[in-house]
Amino acid sequence: MNFTTTVSILILSLFVQLQIGNKAFANQAKHSIISLNLYDSPPDFVSLLQIENYSLLKNAHVFPLAIDTHLDIDLAEYGNYEIYLFDKNGRKIFKRKIHNNIQTSFDLNNLESGHYLLYIIDRIHKQAANFNIEKK
User: Fold this and answer.
1) What is the dihedral of CA 106, 130, 127, 42, to 10 degrees?
2) Of 34, 46, 83, 136, which has the maximum CB count within 10 A?
3) Cα–Cα distance between 13 and 29 in angstroms, integer?
4) β partners of residue 2
5) 28-68 pLDDT, tens per residue?
6) Other residues' Cβ atoms within 10 Å of the Cβ of residue 65
7) Distant-in-sequence, close-in-space partners of 95: CB < 8 Å, separation ≥ 6
8) Given the DSSP bridges, would you call strands 103-107 and 70-75 parallel, antiparallel or unpaired?
């Protein structure tokens, strides 16, 4: 049981107790439960992607960070890279591989508006970088 689950259970218990006495306050507690469950903590991406001992991948540029349709990535060196995109709940949207290329572009027009986390991983040099992306 993680922290968010424990807090949700405590608030649910509070909601049940307050529902008998004060319905207006109970409705506020009910809304708190909903907001906590929507933003449950995402998984530990470092462990998930197996990059515990990786150093920072420098000179990786991602733009724009607030995207409408396309996301562009410029890398300093030719190499083999893995690109991962996760939504705010930790669900993997895609994994792509880039081979011997320093520039690439992704069409993200079909993504829903929201916040995403992008990881770029160089397994050969054991380097990784992450970027917060917003889809308008």
Assistant:
1) -110
2) 83
3) 10
4) none
5) 433 333 323 333 445 677 777 888 889 999 989 999 989 99
6) 11
7) 82, 83, 84
8) antiparallel
pTM passes above 0.85:
no
The C-alpha atoms of residue 4 and residue 111 are separated, in whole angstroms, by 27
DSSP three-state, residue 132: strand
Query: Which of these, 75, 71, 39, lies nearest to 60 by C-alpha position?
Result: 75
Phi, psi of 124 (to 5 degrees): -65, -45
Q: Are strands 103-107 and 60-63 parallel, antiparallel or unpaired?
A: unpaired
CB burial of residue 133 (10 Å; 0-12, 13-18, 19+): buried
Tokens of 112: 């829903």
CA distance to 45, 56, 59, 68, 104, per residue, from 92 (Å): 10, 21, 24, 20, 19
- Nearest-CA neighbor of 80 among 61, 56, 104? 104
CA-based nearest residue to 112, from 84, 89, 131: 89
